[in-house]
């Protein structure tokens, strides 16, 4: 089992495009043994300390294997929404971890 934390940084004014992209892409996780454990949209008040820009959303995701994750990334349907991703997401900070 692999665990991923994705901090999503969205371009200002592009939040609705990002929400559309997520509504199309997140269901595809299930096709590759992926699971959205948490989807968090924190506010400024939720941060005690930050030296950098705050993320718009934080996702905690799991996959059974690295291969499942790779297949999700290469999914043809997911890639067909790439223009929505490029239009709305400034950057993503992805961290892979394990459950302790």
Protein model, in words:
Helix 1 (15-25) packs antiparallel against helix 4. It is globular and about 35 Å long. The relative contact order is 0.35. The protein has 100 residues and is an alpha+beta fold. A 4-stranded antiparallel beta sheet has the order 2-3-1-4. The longest helix has 11 residues, at 15-25. The protein has helices at 15-25, 66-73, 76-79, 82-88; strands at 2-10, 34-40, 57-63, 89-97. It has 4 helices and 4 strands. The N and C termini lie close together (12 Å). The model has no long low-confidence stretch (mean pLDDT 95). Helix content is 30%, strand content 32%.
Average pLDDT taken over every residue = 95
Oligomer designation: single chain
| Percent helix range | 25-40%
Number of separate helices:
4
**Kindly, what is the distance between the CA atoms of the first and last residues, rounded to a whole number of angstroms?**
12 Å
Strand runs, count: 4
Helix/strand/pairing category: alpha+beta
Shape: globular
- The SSE order reads EHEEHHHE
């Amino acid at each position: 089992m692999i665990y991923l934390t994705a901090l999503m940084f969205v371009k200002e004014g592009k939040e609705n495009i990002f929400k559309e992209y997520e509504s199309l892409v997140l269901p595809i996780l299930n096709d590759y043994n992926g699971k959205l454990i948490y989807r968090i949209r924190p506010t400024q008040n939720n941060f005690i300390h930050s030296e950098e820009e705050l993320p718009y959303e934080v996702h905690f995701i799991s996959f059974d294997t690295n291969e499942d994750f790779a297949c999700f990334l290469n999914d043809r349907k997911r890639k067909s929404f790439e223009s929505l991703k490029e239009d709305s997401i400034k950057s993503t900070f992805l961290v892979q971890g394990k459950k302790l």
